[in-house]
Amino acid sequence: MTYRWVMSTSIAAESPAPEVEALDTAALDTAVVPRRPLALSPSRASDFKTCPLLYRFRAVDRLSEPPSAPAARGTLVHSVLEQMFGRPAEQRTPEFTATQVGPAWEQLAVDFPDLLDLVPAADMTAWLSSAQQLVRTYFTLEDPRRFDPEACEFAVEIEVAGGVPLRGFLDRLDLAPNGQLRVVDYKTGRAPGPDFEARALYQLKFYALMIYRLRGIVPAQLKLIYLADGMSLQYAPAESELVSFENGVVALWAAITRALDTGDFPPRPSGMCQYCAHQALCPEFGGTPPPYPGVPPRADPGTTPGATDAPAPGTVTAEVAFDL
Ligand code: SF4
Fold first, then answer.
1. Closest residue (by CA) to atom 3 of ligand 1?
2. Lowest-confidence pick of 22-26, 60-64, 203-207, 222-226
3. If you measure from the C-alpha of residue 7 to the centroid of ligand 1, how many angstroms do you get, rounded to a whole number?
4. Domain 1-10+39-65+150-324 classified CATH 2.60.40?
């Protein structure tokens, strides 16, 4: 495995903080949408490995979790960066892009009015300013005027070995003139410390496997960009490594399937419990889980689409080769 850390020289080092995920906007949508068949995503895989009961609460019971202001900021910044790549290259400047934070927030608040409750009015100016700073930090790590992504913010669903359904949402896919692929994921938190580095790499490998099975090409580079401290983690997977990783995913899905069939999702207390939104229902904290609702719909092998809205291969050309 080859990976390396890159740090922006213009960002001062500060103390680390837990990784922040963007909002699950589907959960905020008040419209009733049909339940999709179960599939494995990096987040749910991590949940099951951390605590099977947490996986059940999130993937089977689908219990809601309150949105947070940091997660809303993550969604906002992702939206601003996506819109930036939709504009002509000469407009992709730090100054102009930072001015788009306010309008993007207004649009998000229209789409999801509950988000307005997350930030007190008195704090809104400072909160938007912090989002602008994250956007500016992006420009210390990449020059978006030098390339056009093949796609931004798109979902992939694909079956891998054994018919295991995988689902992921990729922030960006780049295609170099020589055919190399690069997968990019933005994080609005700080780079993880050693204890959480493995989790970050797990997500990268998961996306690498999906692209490999979708396109038949091992991505030349996977890149995690941490906007809070201007760090990036770059990773160049080997084909044999992805095949080995796929075996692990198959084994994990088999364990999840057994738990689904038996309803046995034991709690596994750890330091992550302090972040768990479901302590009140957890036996480890004196709670009682709701009755097991039964096995949720699972896709029959062979019926998972190769990709939901992933781009067709080879349609856009990035202007730079990847710095590996
Ligand atoms: S509180 Fe801890 S043990 Fe209980 S469900 Fe949450 S993560 Fe699992």
1. 269
2. 22-26
3. 34
4. no
